[in-house]
Specification:
With 388 residues, this protein is α/β, with parallel strands linked by helices. The chain is built from 8 helices and 29 strands. Strands 1, 2, 5, 6, 7, 9, 12 and 13 form an 8-stranded mixed β-sheet that branches. Its EC number is 2.7.7.27.
Length: 388
């Protein structure tokens, strides 16, 4: 399928002695703004694009960037996420001396420890990181849709002599207050960090993607643990700490597609972006595949009554009705006379004769009954079982 980069591995027997960089994916998010979509699953396990889950994007970015050692930090309702990742074989992350590891919080003799924040989650897995003795640690969020070559970001980090590098993306000024903003000089060196400022001084938003020199981060995490007032968070505590101490922080500008799919509206919009022929997240790019768990479902069936325009139809679907500008997940049945417009239909859903949906996300295994209509012009709806 593809070759995993292994040049940064040195072994003595079964012991891995040194890696240049490993990745840690923060995947424990509850995603409460996604409402019933995350009632039973963590946000990174939410379906996307007909056949993927959100976690597939950072995992695929890792292997495409030559990173073969990945820790996935889970917490909120992790069963489906754990099952999806498994031993990592879809991403070739099942190799000896490397691979993917699921890292839940754990109990000690003295206390039960949930992850208190993003920085605390990394601190609690210090022994895991030390096992690989990396020079650099890449910290990622497990709930964003994007493609990025982390190896290029690492080159930037090394060349600039940074202690930490933060990936940033330029956002519209009217949206900047929603993000952590990095204020930089002309050399992209960060001199100030503002968490969701009311009056932002710049539009460089943190993407929640960091590269740290492990020795410097390890020291900062230990010291942060001693601060009883700390939120144990990278944005609120660790980045400001590096700045206060005068350590060199660099902003890595990213010009590609990136979307935080934290709301029903943004998740729907990111799915719709896949149907845009000019969309830079192109899933058909052979040079940067997005990998996921394979299924054993049959191909889709488009019957002679079907009308399909600008849509993605996944495996195992039977389409007899009309599907326009929509994403159809696996094993969906659209009966003759049913119409699906501008919508995301999740796996196993059924749309019966005469039904019509527009600008919605339809939940897994939901049945839209005969002649039922859902959709509004002024908002995006999520329809789950039991919704009226």
């Amino acid at each position: 399928m593809y070759t995993v980069f292994k040049a940064n591995i040195k072994k003595r027997g079964n012991l891995t002695m040194k890696k240049k960089m490993i990745a840690m994916i923060l995947a424990g998010g509850q995603g409460s703004r996604l409402k019933k979509l995350t009632k039973d699953v963590a946000k990174p396990a939410v379906p996307f694009g007909g056949k993927y889950r959100i976690i597939d994007f950072p995992l695929s970015n890792c292997v495409n960037s030559g990173i073969d050692t990945v820790g996935v930090l889970v917490q909120y309702k992790p069963f489906l996420l754990n099952k999806h990742i498994g031993v990592g074989s879809p991403w070739d992350l099942d190799v000896e001396g490397a691979g993917v590891s699921i890292l839940p919080p754990y109990s000690t003799e003295s206390e039960n420890r949930w992850y208190k924040g993003t920085a605390d989650a990394i601190f609690q897995n210090e022994n895991y990181i030390d096992m690989y003795n990396p020079e650099y640690v890449l910290i990622l969020s497990g709930d964003h849709i994007y493609k990025m070559d982390y190896d290029k970001m690492l080159d930037f980090h090394i060349e600039t002599g940074a202690a930490a590098t933060v990936a940033v993306i330029d956002v519209p000024l009217e949206e900047a207050s929603r993000f952590g903003i990095m204020n930089t000089n002309k050399n992209n060196e960060i001199y100030e960090f503002e968490e969701k400022p009311k009056e932002p001084k710049s539009t460089l938003a943190s993407m929640g993607i960091y590269i740290f020199n492990w020795a410097a981060l390890k020291k900062a995490l230990k010291e942060d643990q001693q601060d009883k007032y700390s939120d144990k968070d990278f944005g609120k505590n660790i980045i400001p700490k590096f700045l206060r101490e005068g350590q060199k922080l660099m902003a890595y500008p990213f010009a590609g597609y990136w979307k935080d799919v934290g709301t029903i509206e943004s998740l729907w919009a990111a799915n719709m972006d896949l149907l845009d022929s000019s969309n830079p997240i192109d899933l058909f790019d052979k040079n940067w595949r997005i990998y996921s768990q394979a299924t054993n479902k049959p191909g889709h069936l488009l019957e002679e009554t079907a009308v399909i325009k600008n849509s993605i139809i996944s495996e195992g679907c039977i389409i007899k009705g009309e599907v326009i500008n929509s994403i159809i997940s696996s094993e969906v049945f659209v009966e003759e006379g049913a119409k699906v417009h501008n919508s995301v239909i999740l796996a196993g859903a059924v749309l019966k004769e005469g039904s019509f949906v527009n600008r919605i996300i339809l939940g897994e295994n939901v049945v839209v009954e005969k002649n039922e209509h859902f959709g509004r012009k002024d908002e995006i709806l999520f329809i789950s079982g039991g919704d009226e």
